[in-house]
Amino acid sequence: MLKPPTPSQTELEMVTITSLVPSDHLLRKIDAALDFTFIRDRVAPLYCPDNGRPALDPVVLFKTLFIGYLFGIRSERQLMREVEVNVAYRWFLGLRLTDKVADASTLSQNRRRRFRDSTVYQDIFDEIVLQAVRAGLVDGMVLYTDSTHLKANANKNKYDLAMAAKSRADYLDALDQAIDADRAAHGKGPLKAKEREPEVKETKISRTDPDAGYMVRDGKPKGFFYLDHRTVDSRHAIITDSFVTPGNVHDSIPYLARLDRQRQRFDLDVRYVGLDAGYSTAGIAKGLEDRGIEGVIGYSRPTHRQGYLRKRDFKYDREVDVYRCPEGQELRYATTNREGYREYKSDPALCRTCPLLASCTSSANHTKVVTRHVWQDAKDHIHENRQTPWGKKVYARRKETVERSFADAKQLHGHRYARLRGLAKVTEQCLLAAAAQNIKKIATILARWRGTDGLGPNRKRFIHALNCLISELLAAFRLFHPAAI
């Protein structure tokens, strides 16, 4: 029998807010796994201790922001509406069912005023990584780095043309020393002292967001973008670094400085890194060698002029320091230029009568020049690593770590678009998104280890025993195969 519904919204019920939140809810796992009280001490200097109106608890403020990133709520106004009606959100923030929810402007004004020009977002991200380190979720042995683009909040058709300096690599001082040493080893005098001026080129500057960079990359959309350069640890794919640049900055430029920061900040003993072909530069190869880190970098196909011999057709003889062409002629060392390349030149008298001249060089004086970077040995070593069994295994893990991390960020955490304008505000977004992903992963893993993820008791015991066995096997395996992951 179909009966009419009985109104029940006005009934008085005795409940606790805790009883209304499911035991396996994500926010319960987060609350049990992470301690957010450090936020209050970190931001205390930004508040007045004895004057003004009572402020919203900063722990509640940042936990509210994390809810927005965890559940893909882009609008702060919508976020506060969700907090008002969602019991789990109220429980996580420590609010009662009848407590008034803060206004959305409270979040935005704290961002715009109190936390502007501070390092609070970076500090909070770092502390969450440190909690993961202390929980045994990060070992730092293998790190993977890549970048992804976020579309800037700017019209790609509204821009001005201006001359701007290109970004400067952080290893140029070491390169200058290597050039002088190489020239001295070949009996050449040092180059005339000249300060390296940043290369200046005409570029597009957005009228709405001047900090964004106009990105032009093969296979990527053109327009104004930001780049999130992210590093992920191989053990459980915990994000250990997030660094934002304009979209026209090459991936390799900030890499070594950010790698050093992670090693120092989190005391990581980094032994191996996995990178894609965009990081295949002699400067990075030498930087990894100097730090005692083995790198595995994707293959970058060299440029080639159609109809001419390839550089690999000229064989380098290390013992006598010469290149040999397919016809057997030796190309001898001539000089080391300011860009760090040795120049090996042929004998024009022999080249004039060579049957391969037309496919070898278009030089007016019939001289073939082959260049070799002063750090080419380090780059060759990186390429050899890629062909080893352990190198293939390390590189294959990229898609399961850093690439998966970006995929989750874009699909679940609003990482396709920059929510705000300006480099500082996009940095804030990327750090909060990365911190939210770490929070989610830390809580999920620890809940599984503790058996509080809603599984049955028998299955809990089985998974715990299996995790212990796998950890012991991996520890033993790494003693004999340190590159294994």
TrEMBL record:
Residues 18-113 form the Transposase InsH N-terminal domain. Residues 325-442 form the Transposase DDE domain. It comes from the Bacteria. Transmembrane segments: none annotated. PANTHER family: TRANSPOSASE. This is IS5/IS1182 family transposase.
